[in-house]
Amino acid sequence: MKDYTGLPSATLVTIGCLLGGIAPGYAGPHQEAPPTTQGTAVEPAPTPPAVAPAPAAPAPRKEPQAKAPAPRGEYQAKGPPAVPKHFRGKYLDLVKMALTDLLYENDTGAIEARKAGTDWPSRALTMVGLKRLDNVQMCAENVLLHKVPGDFIEAGVWRGGATILMKAILKEYGDPSRVVWVADSFEGLPAPDAEKYPVDKGLGFLHEEQALTASLPDVRANFERFGLLDDRVRFLKGWFKDTLHKAPIKRLAVLRLDGDMYESTMDTLIPLYPKLSPGGYCIVDDYFNLEAQRKAVDDYRREHGITEPIKKIDWAGAYWQKRK
Ligand SMILES: C[S@@+](CC[C@H](N)C(=O)[O-])C[C@H]1O[C@@H](n2cnc3c(N)ncnc32)[C@H](O)[C@@H]1O
């Protein structure tokens, strides 16, 4: 594991200023009360200590050495090896700002929309706003901290942003084994089957919306840009009803649903919820925003006697923690 504690303090200060300056008013993810399970409080992920590097000792004089020639060819981002403790949170804050395109957006209205996750952005890699990304982080960090077994999945990834964040969290914590499953048609939403799922009837516009389509090569490339593509990122291409029940997933610790429609939500819950470990999290991106998704979740919960309280993330999203 690489140790950055010896970085010159000027470098640390520069990074600190950058991270402090990119998100005015953005206080990071650890504001929510920790979820409880059967009366047992689950500790929130620890807030990273403020960066306070010890003054650097004068570096010992080194004899100049012949440098090996720099490799030529395409630059390949390697991503962080495993982020040292004093950068924890800061790296992920920066990833979230990049995923939401808040690093480079100048328009005030667009900035507000991106923070709240209320638009279909032209460049951002996720349409999920900061609170819902913070929620992904909170859930992922809790299962890592409490060693809840299982992989992470999002069903309905669009350009991949929320799953890129999941992978960044695993990288940050140096997790050696969990897989991030990236499930999507990569061709947009299905046409509604109004006879079978009447509540989806009015959602034909989602099927016709080209802006809701992101291709598999593009999503792979998005992981690569962050240096986060490896063999523990697995893509499940196709309609959920065809892919999820036969996917080689053994256990899940984080299950995120973002397929918008009743059909897509049911086609995810039926094969995957039974695989969610006790202590794991089920996250529903549009529970308060889309009646179709809410009804699918409510129907599934009722049919399976799920009584864990649903918690609000923001104007759209909800989640619950599966009981031990
Ligand atoms: C609202 S977008 C997801 C947004 C994404 N989670 C983000 O972070 O920005 C919905 C996605 O779900 C996918 N989708 C919806 N229903 C599906 C289904 N039944 N099978 C496969 N993909 C589906 C669409 O292709 C689309 O990419």
Account of the 3D structure:
- With 324 residues, the chain is an alpha/beta fold.
- It has a single domain (9-22, 78-321), classed as Rossmann fold (3-Layer(aba) Sandwich), CATH 3.40.50.
- It is built from ten helices and nine strands.
- The strands form two sheets. It has a seven-stranded mixed β-sheet with strand order 5-4-3-6-7-9-8, with helices on both faces.
- A hairpin with a 2-residue loop joins strand 1 and strand 2.
- The protein is globular and about 55 Å long.
- The protein binds S-adenosylmethionine.
- S-adenosylmethionine binds at residues 126-128, 154, 156-158, 161-162, 184-185, 188-190, 212, 214, 239-240, 258-261, 264, 267.
Concise synopsis of the structure shown:
The protein is of the alpha/beta class and 324 residues long. It has ten helices and nine strands. It has a single domain, classed as Rossmann fold (3-Layer(aba) Sandwich), CATH 3.40.50.
| Widest sheet: strand ordering | 5-4-3-6-7-9-8
Q: In one word, what is the shape?
A: globular
Bound molecules: S-adenosylmethionine
Going by helix content, strand content and strand pairing, the class is alpha/beta
The CATH topology annotation reads as Rossmann fold
The tally of structural domains comes to 1
Q: Please report the first level of CATH classification, the CATH class.
A: Alpha Beta
**Distance between termini?**
33 Å
Specify the biggest β-sheet. 7 strands, mixed
If classified by CATH, what would the architecture be? Answer: 3-Layer(aba) Sandwich
Radius of gyration: 21 Å
Report the helical percentage. 25-40%
Output the CATH homologous superfamily: Vaccinia Virus protein VP39
Listing every helix as H and every strand as E from the N terminus to the C terminus, the arrangement reads HEEHHHEHEHHEHEHEHEE
- Number of strand segments: 9
| Integer average pLDDT | 82
Strand content: 5-15%
| Count of DSSP H/I helices | 10
Low-confidence stretches: 1-25, 30-77
